[in-house]
């Protein structure tokens, strides 16, 4: 099963995160199938590769709670519903 989850990057006290599609059994910093976005909580910046995210959601990938909130804030689920 594939999940969309955060992968921690950056240094101590200045964490940034990549949003990745990754196998459930992999570690947090494990090898990802594809990087589909970027999230910086300090600057509150988000970059999302929308076509890649929609592709993984259509294939049955499940986002974690945090990634779900980020995607919902960006309006991805509205686009996902119209593509079905």
Automatic annotation (TrEMBL):
GO cellular component, one term: small ribosomal subunit
Localization of this protein: Plastid, Chloroplast
Swiss-Prot/TrEMBL GO biological process terms: mitochondrial translation
Keyword Disulfide bond recorded: no
GO molecular function annotation: structural constituent of ribosome
Pfam families noted in UniProt: Ribosomal_S16
UniProt record similarity statement: Belongs to the bacterial ribosomal protein bS16 family.
UniProt name for this protein: Small ribosomal subunit protein bS16c
Organism for this UniProt entry: Cycas revoluta
Gene name linked to the record: rps16
């Amino acid at each position: 099963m594939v999940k969309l989850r955060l992968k921690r990057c950056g240094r101590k006290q200045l964490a940034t995160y990549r949003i990745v599609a990754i196998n459930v059994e992999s570690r947090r910093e494990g090898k990802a199938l594809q990087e589909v976005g970027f999230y910086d909580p300090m600057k509150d910046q988000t970059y999302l590769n929308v076509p890649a995210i929609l592709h993984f959601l259509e294939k049955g990938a499940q986002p974690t709670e945090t990634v779900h909130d980020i995607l919902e804030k960006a309006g991805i689920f509205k686009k996902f519903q119209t593509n079905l």
